[in-house]
Amino acid sequence: MTTRSTSRPAARSGSRPTSDDGRAAGVDRAAGVASESALVTPLLSWFAAEARSLPWRASGTSPWAVLVSEVMLQQTPVNRVEPAYRAWLDRWPDPASLAGDSAGEAVRMWGKLGYPGRALRLHACAVAITDVHAGVVPSDLDALLALPGVGAYTARAVQAFAYHRRSAVVDTNIRRVLARAVHGSGQAGPPSTTRDLTAMESVLPASDDRAWRFCAAIMELGAVVCAAAKPSCDRCPLAPQCAWRAAGYPTYDGPVARGQRFAGTDRQVRGRLMDVLRAASGPVRQEALDVVWPDVMQRQRAQDSLVADGLVDPLPDGRFALPT
DNA sequence: AACGCGTGGGT
DNA sequence: TACCCAAGCGT
């Protein structure tokens, strides 16, 4: 744990995060500098003691490995990502090695993580990083955002977790924790990148070191303590500061997001088609795809969309394969 | 802004 | 059973 670069005399105990005086965020009138949010120190202490030891958190994890983990974690649970992450990096330890293989191999290796388009984009990332960035994952925000499949969350996650830079990471966990602890609402409202970044920025510590750890810590809290359905407030390090708790845990009264169905959708059909292609060692015939879904029109629509997405290659001989 | 995009475990 | 959910992105 490094120290902050303020002029304030350091009052430290061991390697613990700086012990602040617990006042709410605001402006220190005497010094004229912004004070730190009261959430920070308890959260950093809790994270230092309680963080799960996930493979992408090991010291020495490369920026490329962090990027791989972040893309895999886009909408896929941690426990399913872990083995896939190890296998992927075992095979492609750097962008150049992945770029030297085919996109189809990336899709096959992706297996059943879901949303196979991510595999395609991660492969395209490897190509871009190899060709445009000399094999080095960029740390510049705009350069990261220009990479395929890298959006507002992933770009900042790479800055924070790969390069240990101060960056306002916002994911669904962080949105929920801020909604509760800061705004006293049971759940976050509809996502808005601008609003969400502003909210996170207002509690983000000033130094690179405390900032990136804070991002990791608040995300971890949302994942394991401040859970969406059943928060474990009895073991929450932010309970004393939590606005939601202080307000008596009011129930959410905002608009309810409409959950998306899955059974019977094109997505399900696409999943079955991709399953056939992943399992096959080479190109497959149309008949092998026909059997996955009885509705011919819907099956054809799903197949066409996979071709349009670049996930399936129609061959001149009429067969179909993963992309080259 | 709202929707399409996989998968499998939990309730 | 039929939902809900899990470190988003692209359009």
Uncertain ranges: 1-25
What's the overall average pLDDT, rounded?
90
Given helix and strand content, the structural type is mainly alpha
Please compute the radius of gyration using only Cα atoms.
23 Å
Strand content: under 5%
**The CATH C-level class name of the domain at 62-161:** Mainly Alpha
Globally, the shape reads globular
Gross CATH architecture of the domain at 62-161: Orthogonal Bundle
Biggest sheet layout: 2 strands, antiparallel
Give the N-terminus to C-terminus distance in angstroms: 46 Å
CATH topology annotation of the domain at 62-161: Endonuclease III, domain 1
SSE string, helices as H and strands as E: EEHHHHHHHHHHHHHHHEE
Percent helix range: 40-55%
Q: Let me know the CATH homologous superfamily of the domain at 62-161.
A: Hypothetical protein, domain 2
Please provide the count of β strands.
4
User: How do the strands line up in the largest sheet?
Assistant: 1-2
Region (Disordered): 1-28
Cofactor: [4Fe-4S] cluster
Domain HhH-GPD: 72-224
Protein name: A/G-specific adenine glycosylase
Describe the protein.
- The protein has a two-stranded antiparallel ribbon.
- It starts with 26 loop residues before the first strand and ends with a strand.
- 47% of the residues lie in helices and 2% in strands.
- Among the domains are: 62-161, Orthogonal Bundle (Endonuclease III, domain 1); 266-321.
- Helix 2 runs antiparallel to helix 8, helix 5 (103-110) crosses helix 6 and helix 13 crosses helix 15.
- It has helices spanning 40-50, 63-72, 78-91, 95-99, 103-110, 117-132, 141-145, 152-161, 172-182, 193-201, 208-224, 243-246, 266-279, 286-290, 296-308; strands at 27-28, 33-34, 313-314, 320-321.
- With 324 residues, it is mainly alpha-helical.
- Strand 3 and strand 4 form a beta hairpin.
- It has 15 helices and four strands.
- It binds a DNA duplex (11 and 11 nucleotides) through residues 69-81, 112-118, 121, 148-154, 157, 169, 171-174, 190-192, 219-220, 222-223, 228-229, 258-263, 265-268, 270-271, 274, 305, 309.
- Its cofactor is [4Fe-4S] cluster.
